[in-house]
Amino acid sequence: MSMTGVQIYKFLPKTNCKKCGFPTCLAFAMKVAQKSIAITDCPDLSEESTLALESAARPPIQIVTVGADEKKIEVGGEVVMFRHEKTFYHPPGLVIRLKDSTPLEENLKQVEAVASYQVERVGMMFTVDGFAIENDSGDAAAFAKLVAAVAEKAPSPLVLMSTKPDAMKTALEKAGPLRPLIYAATTDNWSDMTELAKAHGCPLAVAAGDGLEGLAGLVEQVTGNGVENIVLDPGGRDYLSSLTQLTQIRRLALKENFRPLGFPVIAFPGEGTDSNEEESMLAGQQVAKYAGIIVLNHFSPSTMYPLLTLRLNIYTDPQKPIQMQPGLYPIGNPKEDSPVCVTTNFSLTYFAVAGELEGSAFPSWLMVCDTEGLSVLTAWAAGKFDAERIAKATKEFNIAGSVNHHRVIIPGHLAVLRGELEEELSGWEVLVGPRDAVDLGAFLKKSW
Amino acid sequence: MPTVEIPVEKWSGKIHEVRLGGQGRKEVVVGGENTLPFLHFEGSIPNPPVLAVEVLDRDPRDWAEPLLQAWGDVLKNPAAWAKKAVEVGANLIALRLKTAHPEEGNTGAEEAKRVVSSVLEAVDVPLIVLGPEVAEKDNEVLVAASEAGRGQRLALGNCEEKNYRTIGATCLADGHVAIGKTPIEINLAKQLNILLSDLGMSQDSLLMDPTTGALGYGLEYTYSVMERLRLAALGGDKMTSMPMICTVGEEAWRQKEAKTSEGVPDTWGPLAERALRWEEMTAISLLQSGANIIVLRHPSTVEKVQSAITRLMG
Ligand code: B12
Ligand code: SF4
Fold this sequence. Notes:
The complex is a heterodimer of chains A (about 450) and B (about 325). By secondary structure, chain A is of the alpha/beta class. Chain A has helices at about 5-10, 25-35, 45-55, 105-115, 140-155, 165-175, 190-200, 210-225, 240-255, 275-290, 300-315, 345-360, 375-380, 385-395, 400, 420-425, 440-445, and strands at about 65, 75, 95-100, 120, 125, 130-135, 160, 180-185, 205, 230-235, 265, 295, 325-330, 340-345, 365-370, 405-410, 430. In chain A, helix 4 (about 105-115) runs parallel beside helix 5, helix 6 (about 165-175) runs parallel beside helix 7 and helix 10 packs parallel to helix 11. The longest helix of chain A is centred in the middle third of the chain and has 17 residues, at about 240-255. Chain A is globular. The N and C termini of chain A lie far apart (about 55 Å). The mean pLDDT of chain A is about 95. Chain B is an alpha/beta fold and about 325 residues long. Chain B has one domain (about 50-310): TIM Barrel. Helices cover about 40% and strands about 15% of the residues of chain B. The longest helix of chain B is centred in the C-terminal third of the chain and has 18 residues, at about 270-290. The chains are: A alpha/beta (about 450), B alpha/beta (about 325). At the A-B interface, strand 4, helix 8, helix 9, helix 10 and helix 11 of A face helix 7, helix 9, helix 10 and helix 11 of B. Iron/sulfur cluster binds next to helix 2 of chain A.
């Protein structure tokens, strides 16, 4: 929630004394609104005004960083209830839970599998964000050992799970520099846990079992003690209580600007369900509905891939599809006599087609037309992918200069365009490809 | 302790309640809620979302392996298929008259009547009948289905801008519910509801299909247009207050992720698992954006999504 210059101006002394280096208080306020200088450059600002401005400038949901260096994740910072109102900005962190009661070897195998997991979608590479390590054994030494082993093997964003300050302390000695999330401060241990969070500069999860009021009360104690980077655990574990609490917390933060609950929320879908599949479904609900960090008890490629895909879907900008630069793309190592395929610049479409061409026996040229990021049929229905546009792109990208033939392949869904396109591109032969890109390999084998 | 006052929206609108079946057949009622999905703390949700299983009027030879395996022999016989679907938990059957498509056999009214009657006889749950999505053929076979199911309060679809008149009129004549389908656009959805209402169809006889994009294939557009439709409805707009139906199975199982086992990365996981997850994940997210009827294909998805719905209903 950033303030306008005029809103900021109201808090200034309005003396135009120029000590800030600006001719007037209003000019100063405008610069502050653009975030190019700090409000503290005005030496005469009253203490109340400073406080009011700082709290107004804070986002309604705090952005919390877990992890250090490039691998860190940022969660929270959302500004709307529904993605169409603006965008959901900070995708929830997905972490896999390990227990220190499991044999170390088994845990390390899991760490290896998770850390090396990566999957590509629309040209982007997705990975699992990190691990939640639980002191299930109750033994501080075993906890510290596992934490150290994971920190060494896969230095990634971590959630350290123990309610015992002693165990947390030894674990933080191993993993503190990775800035793990400390889980969790409770009514019993909050004082010690806040000290640990401060000492190591770590974010702190706050868990209270007795409803949102109890949680808000505990958060106030923790913030009063000087910890600002907080993640909430309101305690709901099943489908319904999770949805209810996450919705209520989001509403309180955004609509009421209720500070004590203006933080991202951690969810544990595995505790409200009985199997890997069900856990991933509940996690899906939590991706859509407001979780900041999701701790998964299970890890398998067949549940991870759909979950990462859903996260990408929900967290893309609804005003702007993910797009490719229009142009002529070589796929494989195409030569002068290689096929030329025509498609749109919607990333999803491009990668579907490019992927199939790569997997085929035919290095090819892929001509990507500017359809303003729309898929084949959507673009066609919107009048942004017609014979005229394709012909224009053929000339613009100088296809004739790259190949020694005059044949282009259009998507099967656009079969109706064939005649018209042959007219527009006189001398060219237009082949109608299959409807689905999956069948391109077979089509080329038969028809090229 | 700070006092926490949970913000509750005072919605003025409510989703129309639509009844299917009845008269000896089981009755299924959808809609009626006056709040967003599953927010029981805010309003009332008298009817849970329901699940339909898609049944084709011909052997689905082109379907993915996990589906063929799960259903087995019944796929050869729509009545047997429908029966088994009810056994695995379908609240409704969605019968797709595929063979009426000009490229799929071009069958007509006679065949439609026969298949619809046989399925109606085999099961006691309400029936949704969907045409081949070619306007003239839809008109032909849906009118036939309408006559075959007179008095059974079927849902007939899809009405599109091109052919809503004929289907709307036959629904009016035979007491059925019409499904209006529009391509992921709030104004088009509303416009079609207005056109159908102008024909004389009452608000409790309309469903809307916002067009489903599968997970990874346009889901985000469907998700958001559904949320917008629902918010408009709760805000008091009666012409967006129809219960929504989503063809999740059809869309999810069309995608490469649900079909291909070879030449895909290992990180996708094995087809037999991944394909199911694709359908489940599409379904669970659209439940959150306001789906009232979800049409599925795999029996295991029916069970899982049903369990999620039961828990979300509290
Ligand atoms: C998501 C979506 C949208 C999104 C846009 C997403 C985007 N960035 O493109 C939104 C909501 C904005 C939208 C809007 C509209 N949409 Co729309 N939309 C869809 C939806 C659900 C999915 C489209 C998609 O993303 N497909 C995935 C991509 C990868 O598919 P693809 O580009 O076709 O590529 C595949 C193949 O074509 C092939 N291929 C691609 N290139 C090539 C090249 C060669 C050589 C070969 C061989 C193959 C090949 O490979 C790919 C994978 O198999 C479809 C319905 C559906 N369920 O499919 C409707 C659909 C495409 N939309 C439709 C319509 C009518 C519209 C609107 C005109 C509605 C309106 N009046 O407002 C608008 C137009 C947009 C505008 N005015 O700006 C219709 C088109 C009808 C028709 N047959 O012409 C559809 C089919 C829905 C329907 N059944 O009515 N839409
Ligand atoms: S220093 Fe402060 S009071 Fe003086 S002109 Fe600048 S903003 Fe105004």
